[in-house]
C-alpha cells in the first residue's frame, strides 16, 4: 500500500506549474499590522491556518447566513462576528474557522468574491483568532474602512463616520 | 527543412522570461522552467499561427536535446498525461521532433509505455486512457507504426477473454480501445481493416454479454424520454459504429499534424513494444461505470449552429475535451471559464449549450461529482460574467428543463439541483419568474415539483432571511414558503402552567440567568418526578424524560438568539447533558426535545445535532435511530433530515480515519526509534534500556489499536442500524400496499428507496468492507425483491 502511494507520487510527481496555479488560495499582500510576532511567524501561521477573515458584510448579516454559505466548502468549526468596539453590535466582518485547511482553501476558491446578502464579500487568510481581534479598529469603534469612506452604504450604517460628523 | 537562423535552445530564447544579459549559461532549473513554460503555452492565443509556433518550438527543443533530453522527455510525458485537451498539439510536436531525431522519438515512446505501466499499477486508470489516446494519435504523426498499435489494441481486447476478473477491468480496456478510435480509427482501418473488423466484432460480443444491473443506480432520470440515460460503453459503441458507417470521417478534431504531412511522412516510425496488460490483483481498483448525461439536443437552440447528435463522435470528443478542461483548471475559476469559452469550433457548435450540459453532467454525476459542488455554482457565475448576453439565457432554459423533468429525477440529483439553484439565485437578488412554475401549486405537496420549490425557498431563506422570501415570491406561493424559523418553548406561556415540570422550568430559567453552575442545575432537577418509573433508585439519574424535557427546552429557549449562544449553552452545561443523556433512551429523548423546540428552524437542528455529536452528548447511532423514529416520520422526506444523516456518517468516517492516522504515525515513530538505535550502537547492546525506550510508544500503539477497533466497530454498527431501519420501513410500506392492493410507487416510496441507494453510493468505499455481513445478515434472499434490487445494483458496481 505504501509502495503504491510512493509510485503514485512519482507518476503524478511530474505535475506542471500551470496546473499547480492556485491563485485564489494563495496568501494575499495583506498583513495584519497588529500581529504580535515576526513577519516570518505570521506567514507560517497564515500558510497552515484554517481561519478566514471575511469582509464587506452587511451589518445585518447573521451568523446563520454565514454558516449556511461557508458550510458549502466544508464543516465550519466556529464563527466569530466582528463587533463595533463601543456599541458591541455587528460592524461588517467576521472570522470563519474550519476543522480542515482544505475546506478553508475551497472557501477561498469558490466563496470569496461571490455574494452574501447581495454584497460581494471578500475572504482572506487569518493567522488565528485572538481575544480582542473581534473588534473594529476604527476610531469610532467600527472598521477603519467605515471611518473615511465617502459613499452611502445602507448595509454599513450609511455614510462614513467622518462624513457623518460633518 | 529548417529555415532561417538555427535555434539557440531555451537559453537563448528572447522573451522567455530572462532579460538578455551577457551570461554564459542560465541555471539548469531556470532552463527547465523555461522549457516547461514554452511547452505548456504552445497552442495558446498567439500572434503567430499554431503551425509556426509548433515549428519554432520543435527547433528550440531539438537544439536543447543534447543537454536537456531527459527533462524534455519528462515534460512531454507529463503534458500527455495532464493536458489531454491539447492532445493533438503535443502529438504534432512529438511528430516533428521524431522527424528531426529518430532516436528521441524512440525514447519518447519507451518513456510513454513505462508511464502507462506505472499508471495501471497504481490504479490511475483515468490518466492511463489519455496516454493510450496519445499513443494512438502518434500513429497519425508517423511516430508509431499502425500495425503495432493494432497489436496493442488486440492485447487490450483480449482482456475480455480473461476468466474470474471483475467486469470493470474488461470495461476499462474496451473503453481505452474504443475511445481512441475517433482520433486514429481511420488510419488503423486503412492499414489493417481485417484486424480492426475482428477487434470490433469481439468488442461487440463483449458488450452484448456484459451485465448492466448497475445502470439504474447511476441514472439521473428514470425516464428514457426525451433523452435516454445511456450506459457509457453503450453510448460510445453507438458512436463508433456510426463513425465506421461514415467511413471513419471525423471533422471536429483539430489536427495540426495535417499541415506538416510532407515533413512527417518522411519520418521513420517506431514499433510499439508488445504490451501485456498487467494482471488483475487484489489491490486493483478500476473506474466505476458511468451513465452519459444528456439534456440538450439540436431542437434546443433552433437559431444557432446545430448540436451534434447524441451518437455522433463529435459529441463524444467535445464532451471529453470540456471535461478535461474542467479537470485541468478546477482551482482557477476565471481561467477555467475562459478556457471553456475559448474551446475551438465556437461558431460551428452551440458551445454554451455544451458547456452547460457538461457542467450539469458533473454536478449530477452519481455517486459523486468529480469536484466539490460549490465549484460548479461559482464556475457558472464566472461564465455568466464572461458571456452576459447569452449564457444566462441558456442557464435559465436548462433550469426550466430540469424543473419540468423533476418527476423522474433521482432524489440525490434533486438535492444537488436545490443546492445549486438556491445558491445561484442568492447571487442574483433571487430574481426568478416563479409564476412560470405555478403549475406546482395545484399538486400534492409531496409531489416532486412543489417539494422542490419548497426546499429551494427554504435554502434561499437560509442564505437571507424570512421576510425576504415572502417578498420575492408571488402571494400564491405562500403555501410553499418556509416557516418563520422561531423557537417553540412549551413552558413559555402562563396558560401552560398546568404542564408537569412548568415550575421547575421557571426555576431553571431564573437560575441560568443568574449564572448557575452545573451542580446547582442538578439540584434543581432532582425535584423533577420520573413519569416512567415506580421503583426508584436513589440517585434518580436513570432515564427521566421529563428532566430532559424541562432542562433542554428551557436552555435552548434561553440560548435561542444565535448559533453561538446555543453552542455556549451546550458547552457550559455539558456535564448536565452528559448525565441526562447517559443512556441510549436519554440520547434519543434529547434529540426529540431539540426537534420539538426547533422544528421551525431545520438549520438550527442540524448545527445542534452536529455539536452534540462532537461533544459526545449523543452518538451517531442515536442520531440514526432518531431519524428513523416515528416522531420524525412527518419530516422524513425533507432534505434537511438527509443532510443531517450524511453529515453524521461523514463525522463517523472522519473519526475512524483520524485515529487510524494517529496509529500509523505512532507506529512510524516507533520504527524510526528502532532505526536510530540500530544505527547508533552496534557493540553496546543493552536490551533493557531499549525496551524501556520502546515502552511508552508500544503502550500508546496498543491503546490506539484498541481505539481504532472500537471506532471501526461503531462505524460498522452505524451502517447496520441505518440499513436495518430502511429495510423495516420499506418492508412495512410494501406489505401495506400489497394487502391494500395499492400501487407501491408513491412519491414517498420513490424518495425512500432512492435515499437507501444514496447511502450505498455516497459511502461505497466504506460499505464495501461489510459486503459479507450485509449479504448474510440483512440483504438475504427472503427480502422483498424491490429492496434486494438496490443491494444487487450496488454489488454490480464493482463486479
Automatic annotation (TrEMBL), chain A:
Biological process (GO), any one: regulatory ncRNA-mediated gene silencing
This protein's UniProt keywords: mRNA processing, mRNA splicing, mRNA transport, Nonsense-mediated mRNA decay, Nucleus, RNA-binding, RNA-mediated gene silencing, Transport
InterPro entries, A to Z: NCBP2, NCBP2_RRM, Nucleotide-bd_a/b_plait_sf, RBD_domain_sf, RRM_dom
UniProt GO molecular function: RNA cap binding
GO-annotated cellular components: nuclear cap binding complex; nucleus
Domain of life where this protein originates: Eukaryota
Keyword Aminoacyl-tRNA synthetase: no
Every RRM domain range: 50-128
Subcellular location: Nucleus
PROSITE patterns, sorted: RRM (PS50102)
Keyword Transport: yes
PANTHER family from the UniProt entry: 20 KD NUCLEAR CAP BINDING PROTEIN, NUCLEAR CAP-BINDING PROTEIN SUBUNIT 2
Function noted in UniProt: Component of the cap-binding complex (CBC), which binds co-transcriptionally to the 5' cap of pre-mRNAs and is involved in various processes such as pre-mRNA splicing, translation regulation, nonsense-mediated mRNA decay, RNA-mediated gene silencing (RNAi) by microRNAs (miRNAs) and mRNA export. The CBC complex is involved in mRNA export from the nucleus, leading to the recruitment of the mRNA export machinery to the 5' end of mRNA and to mRNA export in a 5' to 3' direction through the nuclear pore.
Stated family: Belongs to the RRM NCBP2 family.
Quaternary structure annotation from Swiss-Prot or TrEMBL: Component of the nuclear cap-binding complex (CBC), a heterodimer composed of ncbp1/cbp80 and ncbp2/cbp20 that interacts with m7GpppG-capped RNA.
Protein name per UniProt: Nuclear cap-binding protein subunit 2
Native species: Crypturellus soui
Source organism phylogeny: Eukaryota, Metazoa, Chordata, Craniata, Vertebrata
UniProtKB/TrEMBL annotation, chain B:
InterPro entries, per the entry: ARM-type_fold, CBP80, MIF4G-like_typ-1, MIF4G-like_typ-2, MIF4G-like_typ-3
Keyword Metal-binding: no
Segments forming domain MIF4G: 32-244
Chain intervals with Basic and acidic residues compositional bias: 689-698
Keywords tagged on the record: Coiled coil, Cytoplasm, mRNA capping, mRNA processing, mRNA splicing, mRNA transport, Nonsense-mediated mRNA decay, Nucleus, RNA-mediated gene silencing, Translation regulation, Transport
Ranges where the record places region Disordered: 1-31, 670-698
Swiss-Prot/TrEMBL GO biological process terms: 7-methylguanosine mRNA capping; mRNA export from nucleus; nuclear-transcribed mRNA catabolic process, nonsense-mediated decay; regulation of mRNA processing; regulation of translation; regulatory ncRNA-mediated gene silencing; RNA splicing
Compartment(s) of residence: Cytoplasm; Nucleus
Parts of the chain that traverse the membrane: none
GO cellular component, one term: nucleus
Gene Ontology molecular function: any one: RNA cap binding
Family affiliation: Belongs to the NCBP1 family.
Descriptive protein name: NCBP1 protein
Source organism: Crypturellus soui
Amino acid at each position: 500500500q505504501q509502495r503504491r502511494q510512493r509510485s503514485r507520487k512519482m507518476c503524478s510527481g511530474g505535475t506542471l506549474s500551470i496546473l499547480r496555479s492556485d491563485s485564489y488560495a494563495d496568501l494575499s499582500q495583506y498583513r495584519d499590522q497588529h500581529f504580535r510576532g515576526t513577519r516570518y511567524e505570521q506567514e507560517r501561521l497564515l500558510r497552515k491556518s484554517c481561519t478566514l477573515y471575511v469582509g464587506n458584510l452587511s451589518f445585518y448579516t447573521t451568523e446563520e447566513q454565514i454558516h449556511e454559505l461557508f458550510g458549502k466548502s466544508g464543516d465550519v468549526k466556529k464563527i466569530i462576528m466582528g463587533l463595533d468596539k463601543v456599541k458591541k453590535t455587528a460592524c461588517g466582518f467576521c472570522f470563519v474557522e474550519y476543522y480542515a485547511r482544505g475546506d478553508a482553501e475551497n472557501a477561498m476558491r469558490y466563496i470569496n468574491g461571490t455574494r452574501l446578502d447581495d454584497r460581494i464579500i471578500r475572504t482572506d487568510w487569518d493567522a488565528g483568532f485572538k481575544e480582542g481581534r473581534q473588534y473594529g479598529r476604527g476610531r469610532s469603534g467600527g472598521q477603519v474602512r467605515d471611518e473615511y469612506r465617502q459613499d452611502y452604504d445602507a448595509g454599513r450604517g450609511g455614510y462614513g463616520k467622518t462624513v457623518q460628523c460633518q | 527543412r529548417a529555415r532561417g537562423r538555427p535555434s539557440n535552445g531555451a537559453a537563448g530564447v528572447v522573451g522567455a522570461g530572462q532579460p538578455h544579459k551577457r551570461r554564459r549559461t542560465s541555471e539548469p532549473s531556470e532552463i527547465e522552467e523555461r522549457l516547461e513554460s514554452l511547452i505548456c503555452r504552445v497552442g495558446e492565443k498567439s500572434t503567430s499561427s499554431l503551425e509556426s509556433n509548433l515549428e519554432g518550438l520543435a527547433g528550440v527543443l531539438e537544439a536543447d536535446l543534447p543537454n536537456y533530453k531527459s527533462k524534455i522527455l519528462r515534460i512531454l510525458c507529463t503534458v500527455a498525461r495532464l493536458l489531454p485537451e491539447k492532445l493533438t498539439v503535443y502529438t504534432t510536436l512529438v511528430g516533428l521532433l521524431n522527424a528531426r531525431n529518430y532516436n528521441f522519438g524512440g525514447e519518447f515512446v519507451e518513456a510513454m509505455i513505462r508511464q502507462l505501466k506505472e499508471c495501471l499499477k497504481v490504479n490511475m486508470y483515468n490518466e492511463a486512457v489519455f496516454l493510450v489516446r496519445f499513443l494512438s494519435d502518434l500513429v497519425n504523426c508517423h511516430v508509431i507504426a499502425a500495425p503495432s498499435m493494432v497489436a496493442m489494441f488486440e492485447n487490450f481486447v483480449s482482456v475480455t477473454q480473461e476468466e474470474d476478473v471483475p467486469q470493470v477491468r474488461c470495461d476499462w480496456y474496451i473503453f481505452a480501445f474504443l475511445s481512441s478510435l475517433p482520433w486514429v480509427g481511420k488510419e488503423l482501418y486503412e492499414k489493417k481493416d481485417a484486424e480492426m473488423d475482428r477487434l470490433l466484432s469481439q468488442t461487440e460480443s463483449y458488450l452484448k454479454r456484459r451485465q448492466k444491473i448497475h445502470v439504474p443506480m447511476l441514472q439521473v432520470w428514470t425516464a428514457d424520454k426525451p433523452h435516454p440515460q445511456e450506459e457509457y460503453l453503450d453510448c460510445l459503441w453507438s458512436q463508433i459504429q456510426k463513425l465506421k458507417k461514415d467511413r471513419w470521417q471525423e471533422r471536429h478534431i483539430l489536427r495540426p499534424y495535417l499541415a506538416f504531412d510532407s515533413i512527417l511522412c518522411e519520418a521513420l516510425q517506431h514499433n510499439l513494444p508488445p504490451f501485456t496488460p498487467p494482471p488483475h490483483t487484489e489491490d486493483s481498483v478500476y473506474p466505476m461505470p458511468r451513465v452519459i448525461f444528456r439534456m440538450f439536443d439540436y431542437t434546443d437552440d433552433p437559431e444557432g449552429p446545430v448540436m451534434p447528435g447524441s451518437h455522433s463522435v463529435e459529441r463524444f470528443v467535445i464532451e471529453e475535451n470540456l471535461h478535461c478542461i474542467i479537470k485541468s483548471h478546477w482551482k482557477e475559476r476565471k481561467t477555467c471559464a475562459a478556457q471553456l469559452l475559448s474551446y475551438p469550433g465556437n461558431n460551428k457548435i452551440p458551445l454554451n449549450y455544451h458547456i452547460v450540459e457538461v457542467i450539469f453532467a458533473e454536478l449530477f454525476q452519481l455517486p459523486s461529482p468529480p469536484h466539490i459542488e460549490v465549484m460548479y455554482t461559482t464556475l457558472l457565475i464566472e461564465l455568466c460574467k464572461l458571456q452576459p448576453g447569452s449564457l444566462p439565457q441558456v442557464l435559465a432554459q436548462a433550469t426550466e428543463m430540469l424543473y419540468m423533468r423533476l418527476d423522474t429525477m433521482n432524489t440525490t440529483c434533486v438535492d444537488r439541483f436545490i443546492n445549486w439553484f438556491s445558491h445561484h439565485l442568492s447571487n442574483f437578488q433571487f430574481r426568478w419568474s416563479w409564476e412560470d412554475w405555478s403549475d406546482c401549486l395545484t399538486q400534492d405537496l409531496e409531489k416532486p415539483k412543489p417539494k422542490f420549490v419548497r426546499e429551494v425557498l427554504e435554502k434561499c431563506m437560509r442564505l437571507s432571511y424570512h421576510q425576504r422570501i415572502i417578498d420575492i415570491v408571488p402571494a400564491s406561493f405562500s403555501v410553499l414558503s418556509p416557516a418563520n424559523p422561531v423557537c417553540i418553548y412549551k413552558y413559555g406561556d402562563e396558560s401552560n402552567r398546568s404542564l408537569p415540570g412548568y415550575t421547575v422550568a421557571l426555576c431553571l430559567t431564573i437560575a441560568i440567568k443568574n449564572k448557575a453552575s452545573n451542580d446547582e442545575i442538578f439540584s434543581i432537577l432532582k425535584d423533577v418526578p420520573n413519569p416512567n418509573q415506580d421503583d426508584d433508585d436513589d440517585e434518580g439519574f436513570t432515564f427521566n424524560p421529563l428532566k430532559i424535557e424541562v432542562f433542554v427546552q428551557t436552555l435552548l429557549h434561553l440560548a435561542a438568539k444565535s448559533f453561538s449562544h446555543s453552542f455556549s449553552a451546550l458547552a457550559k452545561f455539558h456535564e448536565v447533558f452528559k448525565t441526562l443523556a447517559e443512556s441510549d433512551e436519554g440520547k434519543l429523548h434529547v434529540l426529540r426535545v431539540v426537534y420539538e423546540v426547533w422544528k421551525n428552524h431545520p438549520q438550527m437542528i442540524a448545527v445542534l445535532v452536529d455539536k452534540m455529536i462532537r461533544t459526545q452528548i449523543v452518538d451517531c447511532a442515536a442520531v440514526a435511530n432518531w431519524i428513523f423514529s416515528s416522531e420524525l416520520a412527518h419530516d422524513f422526506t425533507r432534505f434537511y433530515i438527509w443532510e443531517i444523516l450524511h453529515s453524521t456518517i461523514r463525522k463517523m468516517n472522519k473519526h475512524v480515519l483520524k485515529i487510524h492516522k494517529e496509529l500509523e504515525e505512532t507506529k512510524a515513530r516507533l520504527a524510526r526509534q528502532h532505526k536510530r538505535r540500530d544505527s547508533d550502537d552496534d557493540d553496546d547492546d543493552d536490551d533493557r534500556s531499549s525496551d524501556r525506550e520502546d515502552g511508552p510508544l508500544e503502550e500508546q500503539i496498543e491503546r490506539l489499536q484498541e481505539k481504532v477497533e472500537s471506532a471501526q466497530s461503531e462505524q460498522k454498527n452505524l451502517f447496520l442500524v441505518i440499513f436495518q431501519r430502511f429495510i423495516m420501513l420499506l418492508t412495512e410500506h410494501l406489505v401495506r400496499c400489497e394487502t391494500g392492493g395499492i400501487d407501491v410507487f408513491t412519491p414517498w416510496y420513490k424518495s425512500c428507496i432512492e435515499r437507501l441507494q444514496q447511502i450505498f453510493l455516497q459511502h461505497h468505499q466504506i460499505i464495501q468492507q461489510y459486503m459479507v455481513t450485509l449479504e448474510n445478515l440483512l440483504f438475504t434472499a427472503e427480502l422483498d425483491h424491490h429492496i434486494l434490487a438496490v443491494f444487487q445494483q450496488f454489488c454490480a458496481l464493482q463486479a
